[in-house]
């Protein structure tokens, strides 16, 4: 565990020094890491975004593996939290149904009304479905893996483009090879940064079309002897193509415009702040070796606790509804032990306006790090 105690060097009496693996490192000293920065940089909500246009290289295993062991030893009750939450299936059906009804109601609306409703309601509902797809990806709804996959297909219907099953594949790689450049599909390619990462316009284009960026990026990553192609992927295409055809017959062009805009905005199109979670989760905004950031605030009410991201990576078998309980139990490891975000709007603003905040502002490790 990383603790804090009063410095014993030239620091003021109010300053603290990090303790890692039993060793104390005074503020301002050279830290025992290849990046030359402390493992963490303070605790609590983000105040200043101190970024650099380069990877922070680490040669350690995932912090999440270490923290999970520490928390489990100190608070063994966390291992008894449920591993499935069946009511999530109800929310899948409710959100899919609500988007379908909204599309029908908007079939004769003006384009401006459609944009407004898609931005406020549609994107929020579509993003919430992505969060539920995330839980279904980890088999956190049903005991049966097949039932989780089936409801994943249902949750993916309003997104129009069949992406749920491929997300399942690449997201599991993300957990297994977190921040390994360039193996973790969440780590941007160097070409992304070279082409788009050094201007407001370039970053805005990248952000708005992130759904396309991540699809193209996945083609450049090794599959670790696995392939996303499967029978479930075939069903994903059949389900979404059939759904799109039937919905078009029912709601017409304007209704489908609402569905498409809602899907795109949920991942950042038109600079929708919900897309900022892709930045908030793993970009190195403190120039420290903290490789994952949680977000606490309203987003967790609207997005099934998706902001509890450190908690999720630490305990991947805990459904969304129990993540706040995990934080409450082990608070000194999370809100009192790490930096965290409180606003996706703030993340997006800092990302676009800081020259040193680019796609290379990441903590990364070389592939195949061993224990």
TrEMBL record:
GO cellular component: membrane
Chain segments annotated as transmembrane: 78-103, 109-133, 145-167, 195-217, 229-248, 254-271
Residue stretches making up the Sphingolipid delta4-desaturase N-terminal domain: 50-89
Annotated Pfam families: FA_desaturase (PF00487)
GO biological process: one example: ceramide biosynthetic process
Chain segments carrying region Disordered: 1-31
A GO MF term: sphingolipid delta-4 desaturase activity
Keyword Calcium: no
Protein's name according to its UniProt entry: Sphingolipid delta 4 desaturase
Protein species of origin: Cavenderia fasciculata (Slime mold)
Keywords (A to Z) from UniProt: Membrane, Transmembrane, Transmembrane helix
InterPro entries: FA_desaturase_dom, Sphingolipid_d4-desaturase_N
């Amino acid at each position: 565990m990383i603790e804090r105690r009063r410095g014993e060097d030239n620091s003021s009496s109010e300053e603290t020094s990090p303790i890692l693996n039993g060793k104390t490192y005074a503020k301002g000293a050279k830290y025992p890491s290849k990046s030359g920065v402390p493992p963490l940089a303070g605790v609590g909500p983000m105040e200043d975004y101190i970024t650099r246009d380069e990877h922070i290289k680490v040669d350690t295993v995932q912090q999440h593996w270490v923290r999970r062991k520490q928390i489990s030893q100190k608070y063994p009750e966390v291992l008894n939290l449920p591993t499935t939450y069946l009511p999530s299936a109800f929310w899948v059906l409710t959100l899919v149904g609500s988007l379908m009804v909204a599309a029908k109601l908007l079939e004769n609306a003006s384009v401006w009304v459609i944009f407004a409703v898609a931005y406020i309601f549609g994107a929020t509902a579509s993003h919430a479905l992505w969060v539920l797809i995330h839980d279904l990806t980890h088999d956190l709804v049903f005991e049966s893996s097949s039932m989780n996959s089936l409801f994943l297909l249902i949750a993916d219907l309003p997104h129009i483009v069949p992406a749920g099953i491929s997300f399942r594949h690449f997201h599991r790689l993300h957990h297994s090879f977190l921040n390994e450049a360039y193996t973790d599909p969440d780590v941007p390619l160097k070409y992304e940064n070279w082409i788009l990462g050094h201007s407001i316009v370039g970053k805005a284009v990248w952000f708005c079309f992130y759904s396309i960026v991540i699809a193209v990026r996945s083609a450049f990553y090794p599959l670790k002897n696995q392939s996303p192609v499967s029978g479930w992927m075939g069903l994903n295409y059949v389900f979404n193509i059939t759904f799109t055809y039937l919905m078009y017959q029912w709601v017409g062009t304007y209704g489908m415009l609402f569905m498409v805009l809602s899907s795109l905005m949920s991942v950042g199109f038109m600079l929708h702040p919900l897309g900022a979670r892709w930045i908030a989760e793993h970009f190195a905004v403190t120039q420290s070796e903290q490789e994952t950031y949680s977000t606490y605030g309203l987003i967790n009410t609207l997005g099934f606790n998706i902001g509890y991201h450190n908690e999720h990576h630490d305990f991947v078998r805990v459904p969304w509804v129990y993540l706040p309980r995990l934080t409450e139990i082990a608070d000194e490891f999370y809100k009192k032990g790490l930096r965290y975000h409180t606003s996706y709007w703030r993340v997006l603003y800092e990302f676009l306006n800081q020259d040193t905040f680019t796609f290379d502002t990441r903590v990364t490790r070389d592939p195949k790090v061993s224990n």
